[in-house]
Every structure is written in C-alpha cells, then in structure tokens.
Amino acid sequence: MKLDLTSFAFGFAINGSNGNPNWATALGQGYLHKINQSDSINEILKGLIYCSVPLDRVQTKIGKGGKVYKGTDPESGIVTGSVFNKVYVNGNLVPDCKVIIVLTKDTTPSHEGRLRLKYSPHNAILNEQGDVTLSNADQIEKIRAALNLTPNACWFVYEIEVVGQDALYLSAGIADSSANVSYASTSDLHDKWNDIIVAAGGSPIKLPEGDGAYQLITYGAPGTGKSHEIDNRTDESNSIRVTFHPDTDYAAFVGTYKPTMDEQERYALDATGKTHKIEAKEKSIVYSFVPQTFMKAYVEAWRRYTSVDLQGDAKTYYLVIEEINRGNCAQIFGDLFQLLDRADNGFSAYAIAPDDDIQKFLGTNKDYKLADISLSEDIKKMTETGEKVIATAADIKAGKKLVLPPNLCIWATMNTSDQSLFPMDSAFKRRWDWKYVPIKNANLGWEIVVGDCEVDWWKFLVEINKIVKGVTNSADKQLGYFFVKAKDSVIDAEMFVNKVAFYLWNDVFKDCELDGDAFKIEREGGEVDVLAFQDFFKEDGTINEEVLKNFLTKLVPQPETAPGESEAGPAADGAA
User: Which of 177, 182, 265, 416 satisfies CB 3.0 to 4.6 Å to 476 for a cystine?
Assistant: First the structure.
C-alpha cells in the first residue's frame, strides 16, 4: 500500500518551513469513505487483526492538538492497535524491531467514518499499570540505524506491505543520509522523491488529491511549463479543458439554449381519418439547453463522487482553464463565484439556486440528470454553533441547488506576460490557491543551430533574461525553457527568428533602448546602428543567418579555444 508521500518522513523542509508529517494514510476516499479495493490493503487488514493487542494497552496522539488517547476512550476513534514483531526495511530484517500500527475511524463531521492507518512515533503499548513499554519513537531509531542514517538525515517511508499476516515490510527512500533537505515547494519535493522511488524500482506516487488546492492557478513567465504542471495530474479520462478569451461569457462556460437538430416523430391520417405514426422520423430544428465545460465537469464530478466503482484518485475530476486572465472572470463565473468558497470538508461552503433553465436541465436531461446518483446524505459544514446543512441531497439531485463536491478541482494557468483586458478583483483572487512556476533549466540539451553555429538554449535564456529584466524591470516578460518546442533537440534559424526574436522585438523591446554589442549592426558605409527585427531577414524573405549568428555569439559567451585546439577538439597527433 502506497503511503501519502510526506506522511512518514524526516528531515525535510518546504519553502523554509520544517515538514510536519501527519503520520497516517486513509484507506478510502470519497463518498462514505469506503475502503479501496486492493489486495495490499486486504493483507494489511488481515495482519492488523492477527497482530492486534487489547485496546486498553494501545495509546496514541490524535488530532491537530495532539491529544493522547487510549484505545478504550470512546472519542478516540481507535479501532485496533497491532504490534508487528518482524519488520523489514528495503528487504532487510531490522534486528529487535517492533512497529505499532493503529487503525482509527474519524469521528469529525468533515471526515466521519474515514479509516486511517497511523504509524506515528507516538503510537505506544502500555502495561497493566499504564506505563509505556513499547513506542514507535524507539523503533524508528532502530530503522534509522539499520539504514545507516544520521539523526539529521532526510528520508521517508513510501510503501507498507504485510506478508504472512505477521511481517511488516517498509519501503524507504533516502534523500540525504546525513543532512536535512529543503525544497522550494510541495511539487518540487514530490518530483525529487518520486525520482528516488523510481530509481529503487518503485512506481511514482501521486500528489495528494488536489495537492490541498480545490482551486489552483499556476502562473509564471511564458514557456515555464505551467500547463505541464497540470498535465502531470490530468488526462482525457479525468479532466475537461477550456481556454478563456475576451469573448468568453457565462453562457459559453456554463451553458445556454441553442438551436439543435432533433428527430421528431411523424404522424399521418389514414383513409379512415385516424392518426397513426410513420416509421420515418423527421429532423427539425429545436431549441434546447446545451451544457458547456463547467456543467459537464459539475455533473461528471458528482457522478464520480457517489460512484462505488471508483476509488481514491480515480474519483477526482479536473476542470482545467487555460489562460484564465484573458477572460472577464466576473462575467464568466457570474453567480458560480459563490461556489468557490470551500468548507473544510471540500464542499462549497454556500449553495446557490441556479436559474430555471439549469434546474430543468439537471433534473430531466437523460444524459446529465443527477437524479440517479447515489447521494442520500445532506451536504453539511461545521460552524461555530455546530453542523449546518448547505444543501439537501434531494435538492442537489433535482438541480435546485448547486454545490461543488470535494473531488471537483478547478485548476487554471495564467501567463503573467499577457496584459489582461479584464483584471481579476481581489475577492476572486482570494478564492484560489496560487502556485508560481519559475524559470528553470529543464536539462534537455536543446541547441540553437544556425549553419555551423551551435548555441546552448539554456545559456541563451540566461543571458537574454538578464537583458529582459533590465529593460522591463520585471520578470513577467522573460522566457521559459519551453517557450519554443525544439525538434529533435534543435531550434533552427526559422523557429528562432519567427518565434523568439519576433516575441522579443515586438512584445518586449519595442519601447526600449537596447545597448550592447549583440544589439548593434554595421550598415553599408560603416555606420553602426541598433539591430532591428527586419535585419534578421534578407530581401527575399529568407533568414539572414550571418546577422543571426553575430547576434547569438555576441550575446552568449563562447568557450575560448585553447592553443593547438579547434572547436572540434585537440589537434590530432602529428597534425601540421
């Protein structure tokens, strides 16, 4: 069974803050928190029963406050506590090691009924007098020693298996055997730790559902890979996409009445004057409500949320919005804006009543109606005075109330270099999590190739981005690694001039004074002038490769050729 990746981990920090593992992984997600269908989980459950100890001997800390509970405390939610006397780490038996696994069932309203495996250092076994005789904290130190790690090491357990009902197998990864490691973001940590897992022969672990973000906007300079970040989590089976533009409106995002072709029954009078149906149907134009991206995502998410056939990550559905800042978000979202406020349990904190057209569509359309979903419990949230009903199950199924389910994630990209026609207001922004995607070297070995001149793409980006930031006083117009897509790792002259140079001279440098040898050109008669975009072309419209090579080689420092060497390398022995 794969664990949530930072739930059993040590010696790491994210964005300057020390990591805080939650020491547990859920056995099921989604509606009613039913246990995921998995042979691995089945074996773990058998082992928990076989190795169980009396509940009055079990102790652990539960909840954000870290209150200590015994297994017999009614409010603890402890189902069972088990001691595994044989513990293996990365296939090797750890001498004299016993690990305590506690199975809990959440009692909090937001996750009531959720079963979780707890492997916390605070798991302990008590004697008859109530004294601790065994604790996971001590056992973790034995595991650390078996892996030859220092107390400051950065390491993590990413998988648990039970074999033969009494042997616990842990798969561990080591980021640094002697020192803590700091990561720029949760995504950065997951990428690097998954590399460690894959290198050890394991399969990568996905980020937790939504990475904690129900609404997320990834933003950055053009070409940084903002869409790539989302593509790592989505595919055609679990997402639907839309691109915003200045003409996008509520109807184009949610749905509206449109003329559609429909087959109508035909009737005729027979010789006796009676009406009867004709076999051939007639196609005619009728007006019907046509759902758009949001409505399709909304219905699909609710169906997945209540499905008993889908488990865990499979239930999550993503509505992906490309270029969100190119549309008028206030107009596009309209009253849906209210749904973006999420309660602690992931549902919308407030329901809205849709217009009559949407109510009728969700209540009666044979392809999209919600009446058949297996939702029986009302949607609630916690308030200071207790639980409050957001919407009844009947109203959601009838389309009378709209509430976003917790498995519907709305993720978007925003290009900071675009001058949005419709700036987002602060109230809209507050309802989103934001993730900056920095410019970084993707290490793909791309080269700009112009004739016999080859320039490393990343080195070019480093130099040009210094100039872009200097003339614009901003990083928004800088270029990311994926600003262009190389063909077989080559960016040729045509691609460079028509995409890179065009962007620089028309969007970045058009109102700037350029300085430096790379931006100078010698005209006929010896006059030195500022390099213009049209200088990259000959009179016949083909690329002027000499001008382009001059620009690139002056901009990007070239390695000096040592005496006796050519660009191809040292001279051969005996060469003249």
Answer: 416
